[in-house]
Amino acid sequence: MCGIIGYTGPLEARDLLLNGLAGLEYRGYDSAGIAYFNTASQVRIIKNVGKVAALRECVKKTAEVSHCGIGHTRWATHGGVTDKNAHPHRAGQVTLIHNGIIENYHQLTEEYGLGDKLVSQTDSEVAAWVLDAVYRDCRHDPLAAIGAFVKKLAGSYGFCILFDDRPGEIYAVRNVSPLVAAYTRSGAIIASDLTALISYTKEYFVVPEGHIVRLTPYKVRVYDMDYNRIEPEMLEVSWNMDAAMKNGFPHFMLKEIHEQPEALRNTILPRLAGNLPDFTADGIPDELFLDCNQIRIIACGTAMHAGIVAKALMEPLLRIPVTVSIASEFRYEDPLVDGKTLAIVISQSGETIDTLAAMRLAQSLGAPVLSIVNVKGSTIARESDHVFYTHAGPEIAVASTKAYSVQLAALYMLCCRMALTRGRCTKAQAGQFMEDLLAVIPAMEAMIGQSDHIRSFVRHLIRERDTFFIGRGLDYAFSLEGALKLKEISYIHAEAYAAGELKHGTIALIYDNVPVIAIATQDHVFAKTISNVREVKARGAYVILLAKEQAQLEDGVADMELRIPDLEDRFTVFPIAVALQLIAYYASIGKNLDVDQPRNLAKSVTVE
Ligand code: F6R
């Protein structure tokens, strides 16, 4: 959630930290700060509420030079959005930044008698004081102090630490919260996210959990908790800096919507052998699909919505129960999972804490886990039994777009392979399925080509306080994501309903001119959905109808229409997703909001 960066080396550290933080701002953005050693080897802290641009202005007012420092963008969890609660936090000889939550901070406050010392309301400052005490107890041995310090903590953390008497050095340790690091020709660098490293290196490593990292201008060293040096596994970034830039688009979200056809190609094509899906290179064996008698899909938010689409696709084809669980609920519902359950865990970031905890629970109950993850080397990817990496490239906008469509593509491919393996379809049918899947790519391009038409819908949307999305079957599954997208970036109250369910209560909310976005792309329920459209229209709703090119519509059934290419029913989600994303995007623009960094949200939710 929070963004973290640390640097030591020959370059001007303050500039490097500020540039890195600007790239990490999407992870959290209510306040920002840096701490650095100045040329007199004293630690200086500059931090304030607001975005990184505001911090940059403050930093400009001091003319200091530095070659070692740490920086942080905050997404508040403990304590309000104030300058004092912003990171870095300082305690005695220790200055640190923290991503995560220290769950036992109350006990630690009492144990260390910190009540009068604390100047902020954060758990992170408590951690800083504890480390300072331990550092003194360990006679200023950083490794011993950090080893003893983490034994006292419960919760999740990624810390970067400066000790007053260790100028030029940065120490780091993590549990759950992500950290990646690299030694480059320009010095040593550590961050919560690859986007901060990519300008300096393509080679990096994921900081192993429960290990301590020491960065100096000359090297990066990793130690286990017995203080033995270990060699981390080096990884290579598979995308370049362009992928993390706006490249002429006004917002990351719009750029990422446009990148979807390419992201699908990158995800699907390398996994085709002839015209059939093949996961040999992913190391995903067919036995995984044969040995199960139920599928549990576990995820949060948009990723969970991809799971709901997959359930509607998989159950009729595979004829085994498929259950979709919100990860934060799964954890506490005593789930029915055993060795015959295939758990499919979906996460763009691979770091969402609820999804990770749910995955660990499924594993402890004996289920093999197949994860669908976009970020290479992330915790979920590393801990799951098998990984299907989506190749969307970095997703920077907080609202997920391209990650959703590649998650769907992954699920469609897995479903096809499973059906083939389990004898639920022939090779010819599987080949046709994959052909239909590839046909969604030009259909998505066609939707992007209709951007201006889609933009014309939002004039009406942004005048009203609510919007309803309705559909049946798969169309209902798509609606859920459309409503989420609109809510999170336009702040318009939006709800998705199964169209047939409306008259059991929700239709009471329909008033004159309320926008209803009706999705009617499923032939077998098309007529039924249109009846429901008439019901809301008769009660004054302003209807925007999304239907296939070939659908016969009577005049006046809707106020506005958007036609999508004539795909086989199961595949219409892809162009519909683009349309719904564009509706949300233009609604946000129409309301003059911060599209890429909507209020209260953060990318990569590493707190429960
Ligand atoms: C919404 C959105 C979130 C994420 C959710 C899970 O646009 O991005 O709902 O989908 O927080 O995140 P990951 O996929 O990283 O586990």
TrEMBL record:
Reaction catalysis annotation: D-fructose 6-phosphate + L-glutamine = D-glucosamine 6-phosphate + L-glutamate
One term of GO molecular function: glutamine-fructose-6-phosphate transaminase (isomerizing) activity
Record-linked Gene3D superfamilies: Glucose-6-phosphate isomerase like protein, domain 1, Glutamine Phosphoribosylpyrophosphate, subunit 1, domain 1
SUPFAM superfamilies hit by this protein: N-terminal nucleophile aminohydrolases (Ntn hydrolases), SIS domain
Keywords in alphabetical order: Aminotransferase, Glutamine amidotransferase, Repeat, Transferase
Enzyme class of the recorded protein, top EC level: transferase
Annotated ranges, domain Glutamine amidotransferase type-2: 2-218
Annotated ranges, domain SIS: 285-424, 457-598
Pfam families for the chain: GATase_6, SIS
Domain of life: Bacteria
EC number: 2.6.1.16
InterPro entries the record matches: GATase_2_dom (IPR017932), GFAT (IPR005855), GFAT_N (IPR047084), GlmS/AgaS_SIS (IPR035466), GlmS/FrlB_SIS (IPR035490), Ntn_hydrolases_N (IPR029055), SIS_dom (IPR001347), SIS_dom_sf (IPR046348)
Name of the protein this chain belongs to: Glutamine--fructose-6-phosphate aminotransferase [isomerizing]
The organism of origin for this protein: Enterocloster hominis
Lineage: Bacteria, Bacillati, Bacillota, Clostridia, Lachnospirales
